[in-house]
Amino acid sequence: MKLVFEKSMPGHASVILPPLDVEKKALPENLSRGRLPRLPELSETEVSRHYTELVHEVYGVNSGFYPLGSCTMKYNPRIDEEIAALPSFTGIHPLAPQEATEGCRKVLEEAADLLEEISGMDAMTFQPAAGAHGEFTGVLLIKQYHDARGDEKRRKIIVPDSAHGTNPATAAMCGYEVVNIASAPDGCVDLDALKAALGEDTAGLMLTNPNTVGLFDPNILEITRLVHEAGGLCYYDGANLNAIMGHVRPGDMGFDCVHMNLHKTFATPHGGGGPGAGAVGCKAFLAPYLPKSALMDGGEGIQVRGFAGNFLVVLKALTYILTLGKEGIPQASETAVLNANYLMKGVKEVFTPAFDRICMHEFVLDLSDYKKATGVSALDVAKRLIDYGIHPPTMYFPLIVHEALMLEPTETESRETLDQVAEIFRKVKEDGIREPELLHTAPHNATIGRPDEVAAARNPILKAEL
Fold first, then answer.
1. Are 330 and 37 in contact (CB under 8 A)?
2. pLDDT in tens, 161-196
3. In the chain, ranges of CATH 3.90.1150.10 domains
4. Global pTM?
5. Cis, peptide link before residue 210, omega less than 30° from 0
6. CATH architecture, range 78-322
């Protein structure tokens, strides 16, 4: 489609301003533009059609099935958006006097109480802007704790090889040495490898449970006990909290601090849908090290973002929790797990699961045998799925599974949709057997075909030449 500037025609306009009813005042010459701003000129009809065309170019959860594993791309109730759009919330400035912000403060306090209950933590901050930012804040808590005790020898953070890629990056950004440990054959933490990695230089462990291959680690209490015995702390990556909320709490598993992706688990649009929030909770002994804003909290300490973070994101999360209630929160996680297992059963008749046993919220397919037999890769399959109208799952992650496709159907999909998806996977497999080249060149009916991703990454075109 054309850019809005390419559609611009001189003289076209969509706004008619009323006559000026106040005295005209000219800006001082040093504040005036030397030339008019370069803005597109379109009629109201042309503007409306342009944005409608853009909508048709975008695929989201309101368009169809979106199984992006480990990202919890689920449909979010519109009531959360409506509450966050109320003028009494959107019109508040963070520097407004305290008597004008009591309602907003009440939102933050109530959201903190509920999320502390869900996570098993004692204190909470909403400053972090997103999940990785929450990771950074959580590991800073661990660092401050050790530094305050003068335990400077603890310079290593243990990260399993199935972890999200942001985990080792976060640890490194906090100045730690990253110690990677391999997974056991069952896809969970290898206890012997963990014991070998632990020592007096261990600052902590970064882990998510259920893990990235969608499995709940049965040894989780032993894992956190071993880390604590070595003098380290346990950080919980909340990326997969959607699978266990209302049933199991990270705090009860032995974790000392946790970040929660409010934009995954608690009803804020993910990714391009808007800002996120990486709420960070911790046990009481770490609470003194939480980020504090001199303006909002009246205290001093680390500050990772202005004020109380993305307030409206927290408001959406609170609305979501209150709407579902004590019964609805665990029901959501139950349905997410049920949907994942139902879809895995339907798809395993087509492609091989990496771990063929009961999963939690997501599962990973291993297409290695299929590639050997047909030459068709996991990437080819993912691209072909677009032709059938569904978004591809996560590709080639986690790295411990070759030719991996990771699917997370979430709790908001119906049984009928999951049946349709399993049938689409069967058709794609048959396409690859019958005509491999069809998949090598897929997608065929998308706006953009298959770009040269290496060239695009090395030589990005970031602006249009008009």
1. no
2. 988 889 999 999 999 999 999 999 999 999 999 999
3. 331-456
4. 0.91
5. yes
6. 3-Layer(aba) Sandwich (3.40)
